[in-house]
Design a protein that fits this description.
With 105 residues, the chain is mostly helical. 40% of the residues lie in helices and 10% in strands.
Length: 105
């Protein structure tokens, strides 16, 4: 399907979908703790928020592994690649480099 300039993107028309590397459900507690400080909130968001475009088949793999809205057991909340490694989803090297762990400790 070809997208025109005035058409709106919706994943139901394509074989790709958008995913949050770290599910929002995982971030709620951290968001609550830094809401009073703008600099802390900015740092938190930079560390944890990243969008990923997946094939629908890859998204189905995440769902099958039970990782639609959660991280794998034992994975740090800031590991943007944890869900994809667990579901055996690979990225191009340049894309993976953008998602590499930035350990705050």
């Amino acid at each position: 399907m070809r997208r025109t300039a005035n058409s709106r993107f919706t994943s139901k028309n394509y074989d790709i979908t958008y995913d949050h590397a770290i599910p929002l459900a995982t971030l709620w507690q951290g968001l609550r703790t830094c809401i009073v400080d703008a600099a802390e909130m900015n740092s938190f968001l930079e560390l944890h928020v990243a969008g990923v475009v997946l094939l629908k088949a890859e998204n189905a793999k995440l769902n099958k592994c039970g990782l639609r809205s959660s991280m794998p057991p034992g994975a740090p909340a800031y590991d943007k690649l944890a869900r994809y490694r667990h579901a055996d989803i690979a990225f191009e090297p340049a894309d993976e480099a953008r998602l590499k762990i930035h350990n705050p400790n």
